Amino acid sequence: MKSLRRDLSANPQAANVTSKVFVRSTKSGKVQKIVRELYLREDIPCSSKLCSQCPTIAPADANGNIAPFILSERPAGTTAFPRGHYLVPDTNALLNGMDLFEHTGAFYDVIVLQTVLEELRNRSLPLYNRLLALVKSDEKRFYLFFNEFRRETHVRRGPEETINDRNDRAVRMVASWYGSHLQQSAKKGKKEKAIPAIVVVTDDKENLRKCKEENVTALSLSDYVSGLEGSEMLLDMISESKDARDSKETTRGELFYPEYFSMSKLTTGLRAGTLHQGVFNVSPYNYLEASVKTAAFDKPLLILGRDNSNRAIAGDSVVVEVLPQDQWKSPSTKIVDEEAVTRNDNPDTEETEAVVTDRERKALQEEVKKAHGKHAEGRPQPTAKVVGVIKRSWRQYVGHVDTNSTGSQASGRRQQNVFLLPMDKRIPKIRVRTRQASDILGQRILVTIDSWDRDSRYPTGHFIRALGELETKGAETEALLLEYDVQYKPFPKSVLDCLPSEGHDWKVPVSKEDKGWNGRKDLRDLLICSIDPPGCQDIDDALHARVLPNGNYEVGVHIADVSHFVKPNNPMDLEASVRGTTVYLVDKRIDMLPHLLGTDLCSLKPYVERYAFSVLWEMTPDAEIVSSNFTKSVIRSREAFSYEQAQLRIDDKSQQDELTESMRALLKFSKVLRQKRMDAGALNLASPEVRIESEGDEVGDPLTDVKTKAMLDTNSLVEEFMLLANITVGSKIYESFSQTALLRRHATPPPQNFEELQNQLSKKRNMELDVSSSRALADSLDRCVDPNNPFFNTLVRILATRCMTSAEYFCAGAFTESEFRHYGLASPIYTHFTSPIRRYADLMVHRQLASAIGYEGEDGHAVIEGVTTRNKLEDICRNINVRHRNAQHAGRASIEYYVGQALKARGEKMAADGVDAGIEEEGYVMRVFENGVVIFVPRFGIEGVVRLEDFVLPGESGARSVAERRELAPHRTTEFDSEEYTLRVEEKGHPEKERSVTVELFQKVRVNVSSVKEEGRGAGKRRVRILVTEA
Amino acid sequence: MSSQRQASSASQVPHLSPAELSYLYTSLSLPKNPIRPDGRSPTQFRPLSAETTILPGTNGSARIGFADGTQAIVGVKAEVEKTVLAADTLDSRSLAQHGDALNREGEEGSAAVSGQGEWVQMSIEIPGFRDDDALPVFLSEMMRESLVGSVAGGDVDGAKEMAGGLKGRLVINKRWHWRLSCFSPNLSHTPSPLLSLTTHLALLSTKLPKLKSTGEEDPFFDDDWAAAEYLYPRSNTSKSSLSAAPSYPVRPPVTLLVIAVGENVIFDPNREEIAVADAVLAISPGIPNSENVNMLGATAGPGEESGGQEEVEGVWRPRRGGVKRSVIARMVKTVLGKGGVGEEVLEGLEGVEVQ
């Protein structure tokens, strides 16, 4: 009987066929045995430019070209390897030192093994992606070698061999193969000169030993780095966790945190409903308090204290277990700042610490006391503890070194532990081991978290690089961009290659026979104009209106035809989809698309012809829409107005030209549209935004640049038509793509989100907030007016906005039609169509609309790619939702920073004359805590925490330094009424009414705003200080 | 119908003339020294070749073939399945306990849980028959029952793991178990004993992924197939123990066909021999608990005196009248007795390289 089993020994061809067998457990609980056949080949090139053999055997593509060889023929040498070397890192080396591999000073010519790449992917997806990015970029000469598929380097797992050992063996195998291969095949003449050494980089001691046995050159990461120039800085970039792992068994015995549950226990608990999963959200006011929103409960679960948080960091996806009812507490009414509470911690002396310091315990105990109080409002809420982490969302963090933690002998070059205080207050201090403590003091630095072990009170991380001096423009801007994950690197060449070759000279073709005119309407005769903020360069939209012979109006919205220039799936498109949106900072704009497109070719600049995508409506004079029509077009804008200019022109009765008339018509329509929208229940929400209008004069008071946003009629003119266009397009693409239309929705917020605000309003102002529908909410918001306090209404609107969920992009198939609703706009369907230059979503919608109206593109090939695959669209939605939010946060943070700097500049100017007196402003109490309040200052659009010491009591001088004020805090006591939202601050032993200050929620107070330098501890850290001078 | 009949191998009468049949019967019933058509001794099996793990995607598989090309292939697949609690145990009390059990991880272990027969499935495909036709259903049920019925003897190696027999082995914890599906594709002319042997071998080679979770947690397995464990634990010293210790650990049963012709007991009969047998017994020696095991395959005819027709020399007539008790007893004894043929067969199968 002939055997049916595949017998590898008998078959001479068998050497190139083998198989891989493993067990796969699926999410649904299935357990499968998977058998993969591997066909080994001999034509996978070594990709070294030295090699004379591989170019002849490397597989060629359809055009007969082989992929260019990557590894340099003259790789860099070191003292140990004067003839140059190629690096072969193993997985651990990459895990511990990815930042090193990304460093531009060293680590060139690296052979990345498929084995290592796959192992890395299982260990850490972010690192895997970073490595892939390295492999893709040309600069660093990383070559991905498919060693598992090359016959000579394929390694079969031996019996009883662990997978790690097998992979290590694969690495050694490749190294020795490369060695002998290059020896054999190096081009003649070069042979004698330089065959580069193949250096395995591994942190595995066993592997190092075996390398030695097998005559493979191998070094540990730190040994290798020590031999490089500038090793001191580089050594800091090696991940900390490795050292910790080595020393763990020997040194520390004390474990601060409970162990996480095993993965299987977690999944069992999650399925059984005894455990819950959610995202760990740290309170911005109290670093010891976090909440986790889970599917099982309406309200988020509270997590109090460090031991319950159990090493979770803001943003992590965690599994929590609800604590017994007697441990339930109400949310904290106190402001707790990590810096203040743990300021004396020493990064080196860990052994003596308990996980909850007394001070922390005290802060918590007071909360328990509160929870047991009489009031209904502070009802204890379910609390929970973290029992496992599903996914870490650790990223790179920007911060600065805590001066206190550097110790006295900071000058020495020895390695020491320092604390890094992240910019983001919700992130705990990070212990960083560095040899350059003295150099990085006072710098903005970028670090990453490596691990957080049970025996460490703080997470451990390592230094990546310094961004520059604190408070320098460059460093702070970069810090901001890094913190909000904005891609700010210049566009790579591959993207720029996608631009039209004509560059700035590109023009709409003159001849209508040109293919560029295919499917386009000639709208150059229309009197089109654009209205934008002053100085706007990327003009997305333009408008026109004209009377039709039948007495109706034709109204047109013309949007820059970006999809004409950005073809799906080319490098430019991919880059834009990753960036997702343009980010506006005060003094910088980080474009989604290259400059040439954004500000020139796509931008609907006046007086030149541009491609556009037009939405045309026929409207009755009462703004009833008769019909709508979509077309690609060519337009010529007659004028680019700023809001103000447009307003002036409309108001100027002497202007009677056609263009002005059409603008007046537009304005008239917009008012009708707005009224209709309001009647439908659209919300008029407020955000505390200010604009920075920098004229660039260094002489004037920089604070005058800070302007609250003025709302002109022309603002709302543009807004109304953009909304109308978006809605019209939204329903059109949904009609054509019922599953894949890219839409935007704003979910109806659950009523319990408003509970707190409703309670506050009824207590303090006896006002009702009806949240039963958006209409009811809009109406009741309108009724929230305090005649004595004109800003009160805006304040309530700001607070109401915070109770809502944020709008999001989605793919039509992901929700039922009833859930498409945009709550804030009271529209049943909505999308983004009008800003394709700065938002990727709009670009996608353009493509979908083009496809929906049957536009066939220049060459007659309908471009439906990228509009039909739902999975891909959902990925895009997820990304642009995140990018959108980050861009908003970055923008706000940038303004905040600018305001701080403006205050500082002003302060310094004043200080030259005398004392820095700060600036007097109006403020409003937004939240009341037990030991402070949050004040919102509309003039600067900032909100700040006012602590006890920052209340200026009657009869006390306001002009004290920070240090002096800090001394005040212990001498003050408060009386806090959480039901009435009032806080009375008084000096200890002086309960007289005259000498105390009472503040309450929504109250208008006089405040003194200044920018102060933190003294003593937070080396040169600056914050905006708000002093309450008058209640 | 007639074509179907032909396809059903087990009951098929070979195309031999009455004279040939008569000759065969005579030579087989020669006292003490039967002469078999292929020259084998009465206890000699046909030479067969066997191999395991021929279907890479299965948890275990085997193929056995005779020299004449008759062969059987059996594959075994294992799936994780949630145990549905019987209605009476599903009261609130047990649910509460269940919650406790999560916390008190595996204090009690899963010893209390016994497996269920329906966790083992057997499907046999016979061309020309629908899968719910009587023949395939009967055949597979026959195989399945003996599989499920096998239990460990008290003092045997590996008895601990196999406490509840195969059923017990399939229990992962209180809430999860393995479901085993054995399938045999395209069984055209395979006699059932061959199928049984192949199933036995396939089960011997069956491996289950190694469990990493403990206690009452949802099961979680090692992703390394090499770490997977045999369904029927193998003794490490298999070769030496073969001869030394006759008490092999629990093994899946095999069913052997034994026929009686006259006074002779003949093993592994081929089709022609079955046709002239006085009695055909299917015996499963793997199952110590023998009462439930022995299956009377067929007797040659009703126990009635010959009704008039004289027996003519050289012309075959089906036998009438029963078989003597002593013959049956001898048949059973040769198979099941200590050092009997059954043991021999099992040892032989044990010796097949399963990896």
From TrEMBL, chain A:
<dbReference type="GO" id="GO:0000175">
    <property type="term" value="F:3'-5'-RNA exonuclease activity"/>
</dbReference>
<dbReference type="InterPro" id="IPR029060">
    <property type="entry name" value="PIN-like_dom_sf"/>
</dbReference>
<dbReference type="Pfam" id="PF17849">
    <property type="entry name" value="OB_Dis3"/>
</dbReference>
<dbReference type="GO" id="GO:0000176">
    <property type="term" value="C:nuclear exosome (RNase complex)"/>
</dbReference>
<protein>
    <recommendedName>
        <fullName>Chromosome disjunction protein 3</fullName>
    </recommendedName>
</protein>
<dbReference type="InterPro" id="IPR001900">
    <property type="entry name" value="RNase_II/R"/>
</dbReference>
<feature type="domain" description="RNB">
    <location>
        <begin position="520"/>
        <end position="855"/>
    </location>
</feature>
<keyword id="KW-0539">Nucleus</keyword>
<dbReference type="Pfam" id="PF17215">
    <property type="entry name" value="Rrp44_S1"/>
</dbReference>
<dbReference type="GO" id="GO:0005730">
    <property type="term" value="C:nucleolus"/>
</dbReference>
<dbReference type="InterPro" id="IPR041505">
    <property type="entry name" value="Dis3_CSD2"/>
</dbReference>
<dbReference type="InterPro" id="IPR022966">
    <property type="entry name" value="RNase_II/R_CS"/>
</dbReference>
<dbReference type="GO" id="GO:0071031">
    <property type="term" value="P:nuclear mRNA surveillance of mRNA 3'-end processing"/>
</dbReference>
<dbReference type="Pfam" id="PF00773">
    <property type="entry name" value="RNB"/>
</dbReference>
<keyword id="KW-0540">Nuclease</keyword>
<dbReference type="GO" id="GO:0004519">
    <property type="term" value="F:endonuclease activity"/>
</dbReference>
<keyword id="KW-0269">Exonuclease</keyword>
<dbReference type="InterPro" id="IPR050180">
    <property type="entry name" value="RNR_Ribonuclease"/>
</dbReference>
<keyword id="KW-0698">rRNA processing</keyword>
<dbReference type="GO" id="GO:0016075">
    <property type="term" value="P:rRNA catabolic process"/>
</dbReference>
<dbReference type="InterPro" id="IPR012340">
    <property type="entry name" value="NA-bd_OB-fold"/>
</dbReference>
<keyword id="KW-0963">Cytoplasm</keyword>
From TrEMBL, chain B:
<dbReference type="GO" id="GO:0071035">
    <property type="term" value="P:nuclear polyadenylation-dependent rRNA catabolic process"/>
</dbReference>
<dbReference type="GO" id="GO:0035925">
    <property type="term" value="F:mRNA 3'-UTR AU-rich region binding"/>
</dbReference>
<comment type="similarity">
    <text>Belongs to the RNase PH family.</text>
</comment>
<dbReference type="GO" id="GO:0005730">
    <property type="term" value="C:nucleolus"/>
</dbReference>
<dbReference type="InterPro" id="IPR020568">
    <property type="entry name" value="Ribosomal_Su5_D2-typ_SF"/>
</dbReference>
<dbReference type="GO" id="GO:0016075">
    <property type="term" value="P:rRNA catabolic process"/>
</dbReference>
<dbReference type="GO" id="GO:0000467">
    <property type="term" value="P:exonucleolytic trimming to generate mature 3'-end of 5.8S rRNA from tricistronic rRNA transcript (SSU-rRNA, 5.8S rRNA, LSU-rRNA)"/>
</dbReference>
<dbReference type="InterPro" id="IPR050590">
    <property type="entry name" value="Exosome_comp_Rrp42_subfam"/>
</dbReference>
<dbReference type="GO" id="GO:0034476">
    <property type="term" value="P:U5 snRNA 3'-end processing"/>
</dbReference>
<dbReference type="GO" id="GO:0000176">
    <property type="term" value="C:nuclear exosome (RNase complex)"/>
</dbReference>
<protein>
    <recommendedName>
        <fullName>Ribosomal RNA-processing protein 42</fullName>
    </recommendedName>
</protein>
<dbReference type="GO" id="GO:0000177">
    <property type="term" value="C:cytoplasmic exosome (RNase complex)"/>
</dbReference>
<dbReference type="GO" id="GO:0071028">
    <property type="term" value="P:nuclear mRNA surveillance"/>
</dbReference>
<dbReference type="GO" id="GO:0071038">
    <property type="term" value="P:TRAMP-dependent tRNA surveillance pathway"/>
</dbReference>
<keyword id="KW-0271">Exosome</keyword>
<dbReference type="GO" id="GO:0034473">
    <property type="term" value="P:U1 snRNA 3'-end processing"/>
</dbReference>
<dbReference type="GO" id="GO:0034475">
    <property type="term" value="P:U4 snRNA 3'-end processing"/>
</dbReference>
<dbReference type="InterPro" id="IPR027408">
    <property type="entry name" value="PNPase/RNase_PH_dom_sf"/>
</dbReference>
<keyword id="KW-0963">Cytoplasm</keyword>
